[in-house]
Amino acid sequence: MPSEITDYWALLEALAKHEVEAIVIGGVCAVLRGAPVNTFDLDIVPRREPENLTRLLAALEELDAYYREAAHRRLRPSLAHLASPGHQLLMTRFGALDVLGTTTGDRSYEDLLPHATEMTLRDDLTVRVLDLPMLIRLKEETNRDKDRVVLPILRHTLAEEQRRKG
Amino acid sequence: MTPETPAEVVPDQGPVEDLPAYGADGTDLTLIRWMLSKTPGERLDILQGSVRSLTRLRDALRNNGLLGAS
Fold first, then answer.
1. What pLDDT score does A71 carry?
2. B28: chain A residues, CB-CB within 8 Å
3. Cβ count within 10 A of residue A35
4. Which ipTM value was assigned to this complex?
5. Do B14 and A163 touch (CB under 8 A)?
6. Cβ–Cβ of A156/B29 closer than 8 Å?
7. Does residue A116 belong to the interface with chain B, where contact is any CB pair within 8 Å?
């Protein structure tokens, strides 16, 4: 049974357990960077290299992932799906998980990596998270209503963070 | 890549009373300062709690016929 409430901890723990190399973007990234926003899914951009995709697929199997749009058919992601630059919009037993082969501007894991840092959430859980300037840039480029709404909060968060650092 | 640990959360360096509560666009800056005072793990806990509360509220509204099933 999929969870009605996304369990971000459980999703991140499953990815870490399988040593999936991925960058957290989107709303969870915004929150981890200190922005007071809400989101109902976890967005990640994985490294699309065969061994990593095999580990990602194992994590998704453990999470009982299937495509949200084909819920009645319980269509499962495959290695070929994960290797594509497209977006895999999945439901799991811990809630919604979006696996993005590329993001705005056809940016891959490798393109985003210089703009990401590791954040330690717990002693045993470290995740790679996009930085705020690049998150803002992606949202500016996407320019959807939902991105424009959150942009002022992200910009103020970046300014406040910079003020604190002096 | 340098790991960003909770110890690296930057403490607020300015007196709160001298800082505006809202940005010119109406953004609540006090919430941002509050979030930045938390560790990344605490921020994820806050999101988790917020989503849980919103879902509970939605379910209550739905159970009372005040919100259509989606």
1. 72
2. 36
3. 26
4. 0.93
5. yes
6. yes
7. yes
* pLDDT higher than 50, residue B62: yes
pLDDT of residue B13: 55
How far apart are alpha carbons B36 and B12 in whole angstroms?
8
Q: Is B12 on the interface with A (CB under 8 A)?
A: yes
Alpha helices in A25-130 (DSSP H): 26-32, 50-62, 79-83, 109-112
B37, A161 Cβ separation under 8 angstroms: no
> Out of A36, A38, A161, whose CB is closest to B51?
A38
Residue A36 corresponds to which tokens in the numbers above? 């007071």
Give chain A positions within 8 Å (CB) of B30: none
Convert the pLDDT of each residue in A124-163 to its tens digit: 999 999 999 999 999 999 989 999 999 999 999 999 999 9
Cα–Cα distance, A110 to A112 (Å, whole number)? 5
